[in-house]
Design goal:
The complex is a heterodimer.
Chain A: H1 3-8, H2 11-61, H3 64-69, H4 75-79, H5 83-110, E1 127-128, E2 147-148, H6 152-188, H7 196-202, H8 208-234, H9 252-258, H10 266-300, H11 307-319, H12 322-332, H13 340-347, H14 371-399, H15 402-410, H16 415-443, H17 446-453, H18 470-479, H19 484-515
Parallel strand pairs in A: 1-2
Helix pairs in contact in A: 5-6, 6-8, 8-19, 9-19, 10-14, 10-16, 11-14, 12-17, 14-17, 16-19, 18-19
Chain B: H1 5-38, H2 58-64, H3 74-105, H4 111-123, H5 130-139, H6 146-156, H7 163-170, H8 174-182, H9 187-198, H10 200-216, H11 219-225, H12 235-242, H13 245-285
Helix pairs in contact in B: 1-13, 2-13, 3-6, 3-7, 3-10, 6-11, 7-13, 10-13, 12-13
Classes of the chains: A mainly alpha, B mainly alpha.
Chain lengths: ~525, ~290
């Protein structure tokens, strides 16, 4: 279909056409998606292959000093005059070996990969007690006196830390070997060997990126990546609050999350909360987007005065910290005579009274009913979200060419028609990436749910209320009820959903971008 | 049907004014309620009417001069948060500028892979790792120093939020760098003497966002200091405690007054930097 034909369709035909195109293109897009993932891993594999190949070629081609550098780091550097650099490499190696002998090996061993029952920290000789001296391993062997008061959590943490240190050391090791070979080549070519001072200077210039990134990379690996690896590992254990000693259980936790045994099981809860999370994310994203845009249009309409005042009235709610506005909302929505909303409804005379004359207050956030609290959080979220949309879209709305609207008015189009035929398509075209990030953000929207509803539980859900999203369920399991392994598994699943959604839609918008430009 | 175009336009505009006034009222109402009731006097802690019957400054006096500082100590919470915010603001700003400058202006082999790693890390639910962080802090003995622990929490991952300032650096012409390089400047000098002085807007934005962060964060603070004594609380945790079941019947109005005290400066800062906020969000998330 040519663009000119497309423009002449009515809105419903357009939606139908776009939907059809989406589903026709979906299989090939999914194939593309997996191909992209395949390419990604192929690239990594090739990179590793090249690295290993280079490692061995350099070993074969290098002179004896370089060859010895493979065993004694920095030997080649010392022999060729870069003494300080060589000594630094040597010190690193010695420190690493000492670390592994006195600390590291034990920690790796404690990870439990070699123990008969896959328990972390059990190596067949030690017995474990908690601070009060209660033995947790009585079931295995009779307790003896010698004890170590660590628990699996700490041992796993140290184990992961050791793995990270080994990885860092390997990077330094490969870098040192490579640089030894390069130095040899430099000497062979008769070039001047750079002094230590000159090498340091390079970190302010051609190697400046290393200087800049070293500190952030260190903190990110220590406080973001390492905890992440750690939590991913937790998903494959049977760690809960009541079991400080735990072991590897493979995919059992995931099986539990998917098992639908009826009642308030984890499986049923997972399905129910996944459904609600998706409903919530779709409602919150679309409602906020469209309603916010309409308000922005109203504010920016020609002939409306005091634009700054109207804008500020909405935007000021973005500026107030969410824990203030949402905790306040929670108080105002209370289902008794202290809730401001109920007071308002009562004073207006809209609340029913029971036979005894007592006013029946509405329990907006209580979990007695499934859809009342859900509707409440969606409505409150409109209050939270519309100002954001106004902030973001105002500028873009002003950029829509005015002649589009003028010609539409001349052709007799009303405001509703212009909105759906001009404004919405234009905005959708420009703000698709923003919509995707908002959608992902809503799947992870912890604040609105948790601060508003707090921790409520429903009888037919496993430690969750009807309004809980997957992420608040995760939070509750990892703080209140201490089902750490399930929480970690749910976290991984949420990650998979978010990653797939953003990669798929990212692909789609990228391909859409090349096909036609809005003009 | 109104024939006259001008009359019709006036009627439409009046309708829009009414609608905007109504909506604006709804949006502003909770904040008005908050301010109004923070001045509410009388014996009853919880309001039974929408408009307060008596007015007083006592709530603010109580917040600044807590009668029982071992339970409610707002000045202390405020100081805690202030110290945490200052330090994490300095560290985060440095980290963000360093990372975004490296990704924007320098070309090196690991650039693309590192950017991809950053993107993937951003897709994990942020607080999935908090239990691990808690135990990490415990293992490092930092739980005894909750302020240090929180500063680390807020600033350690700050480098991942580089996108907005990278977008800004990308708009500075590369010809400037090239000219400086020809004149013999190192990349270090280019960063400090050319790029940074030109980046005042993004510097202001980064400083303000990282300063506001600790004031509004709830989750991490809850994990680190939630189980500790009230003298270690940040304002978010302290105020949330005041509306908990245990305290609400005695301290509800202090919660309202404290909220106002926290919200006013933050609101002012935000209104001041909203232009940068919009530029920042649209730079990464909008095309065209």
């Amino acid at each position: 279909m040519k663009y000119i034909d497309y423009v002449q369709l009515n809105p419903f035909q357009k939606i139908g056409y776009n939907l059809k195109n989406f589903f026709v293109a979906l299989p090939s897009n999914i194939v593309k998606f997996f191909k992209a993932i395949g390419r990604f891993f192929k690239k990594i594999g090739l990179g590793i292959g090249r690295g290993v190949a280079g490692y061995f070629t350099r070993l074969v081609k290098g002179d004896w000093a370089t060859k010895l550098s493979y065993l004694i780091m920095g030997f080649g550097h010392i022999m060729k005059g870069q003494i300080i650099k060589g000594i630094l490499f040597l010190v690193t190696e010695v420190a690493f070996i000492a670390f592994m002998i006195f600390f590291g090996w034990d920690k790796i061993y404690n990870l439990g990969f070699f123990s008969p029952d896959h328990t972390i920290g059990f190596n067949g000789e030690d017995y474990w007690v908690d601070a009060d001296g209660v033995d947790f391993r009585i079931s295995h062997k009779p307790p003896v006196e010698h004890v170590r008061a660590d628990d699996s959590m700490q041992l796993l943490l140290y184990g992961v830390l050791t793995l990270v240190i080994i990885a860092v050391f390997l990077v330094i090791y490969f870098a040192s070997v490579k640089s030894a070979y390069k130095l040899e080549q430099k000497v062979a070519a008769g070039e001047k060997v750079p002094t230590f001072k000159e090498e340091l200077k390079a970190f302010g210039d051609e190697k400046f990126h290393i200087t800049l990134l070293a500190f952030p990379c260190l903190t990110i690996s220590l406080f973001t990546i390492m905890p992440l690896i750690f939590m991913i590992l937790i998903a494959f254990t049977n760690y809960t609050k009541s079991a400080p000693f735990f072991g590897w259980v493979g995919l059992q936790t995931f099986a539990d999350v998917f098992a639908t045994t009826g009642g308030a099981s984890k499986g049923e809860t997972f399905i129910e909360l996944t459904k609600w999370t998706l409903i919530w994310a779709v409602c919150a994203t679309i409602l906020n987007y469209i309603l916010g845009m309409i308000v922005a249009l109203l504010i920016n309409k020609k002939g409306i005065k005091l634009k700054a005042l109207w804008r500020t009235m909405f935007v000021i709610t973005v500026a107030v910290p969410q824990f203030v506005s949402l905790l306040l909302m929670q108080q105002m929505l209370e289902g008794n005579e202290f809730g401001a909303i109920n007071q308002l409804l009562r004073d207006l005379g809209w609340l029913a009274t029971s036979d005894g004359g007592a006013v029946q207050y509405i329990d907006f956030l209580g979990n007695a009913n499934k859809w009342v609290p859900r509707l409440t959080v969606i409505i409150v979220n409109i209050w939270v979200g519309i100002p954001y949309t106004i902030l973001i879209t105002s500028g873009i709305l002003m950029n829509i060419p005015a002649d589009l609207y003028e010609s539409a008015t001349i052709d007799g189009a009303g405001p509703v028609k212009t909105f759906f035929s001009i404004t919405l398509p234009y905005m959708l075209f420009v703000t698709t990436p923003y919509l995707i990030t908002t959608f992902i953000g809503n799947i992870n929207n912890f604040n609105v749910i948790y601060l508003l509803v707090g921790e409520q539980s429903s009888v037919d859900l496993h430690n969750a209320g009807y309004t809980d999203l997957l992420v608040t369920w995760l939070f509750r399991m990892s703080t209140s009820t201490g089902e750490y392994n399930t929480a970690a598994a749910v976290g991984i699943l949420v990650f998979i959903v978010c990653a797939t959604v953003s990669l798929l839609t990212f692909n789609l918008t990228k391909s859409a971008k090349n096909e036609e430009e809005f003009s | 049907m109104i024939k006259n175009y001008r009359t019709r336009r006036t009627v439409v505009n009046v309708l829009i004014y009414v609608l905007l006034a109504f909506l604006g009222l709804i949006w502003i109402a909770p904040l008005v309620y908050l301010v109004m009731h923070s001045f509410r006097g009388g014996a009853a802690e919880l309001a039974t009417t929408i408009i307060p019957q008596e007015w007083t400054f006592d709530n603010y006096a109580k917040v600044f001069n807590p009668p029982d500082p071992n339970v409610v100590n707002f000045p202390q919470w405020f100081m805690n948060t202030f110290i945490i915010a200052i330090f994490s603001c300095i560290i985060s700003t440095l980290a963000v500028l360093m990372v975004s400058y490296a990704f924007s202006r320098l070309r090196f082999k690991a650039r693309k892979p590192l950017i991809n790693v950053g993107m993937i890390l951003g897709m994990f639910p942020g607080f999935m790792t908090m239990i691990a962080i808690y135990y990490l802090m415990k293992a490092m003995g930092l739980l005894a120093m909750p302020k240090v622990a929180l500063i680390i929490c807020y600033s350690a991952g700050a480098g991942l939020g580089y996108q907005i300032s990278k977008g800004f650096f990308d708009t500075i012409p590369r010809a400037l760098d090239e000219a400086a390089t020809i004149d013999g400047a190192t990349r270090n000098q280019i960063f400090w003497k050319i790029i940074l002085p030109m980046s005042k807007p993004i510097l202001v934005y980064t400083v303000l966002t990282s300063f506001i962060g600790p004031w509004t964060d709830f989750i991490l603070a809850k994990i680190i200091v939630g189980a500790q004594g009230p003298e270690h609380y940040t304002v978010a945790i302290g105020l949330q405690k005041l509306v908990g079941l245990e305290y609400k019947s005695q301290h509800y109005r202090e919660f309202l007054a404290g909220s106002v005290i926290v919200a006013v400066p933050i609101t002012a800062l935000f209104l001041f930097m909203q232009r940068y906020y919009v530029e920042g969000v649209t730079a990464g998330g909008v095309k065209g």
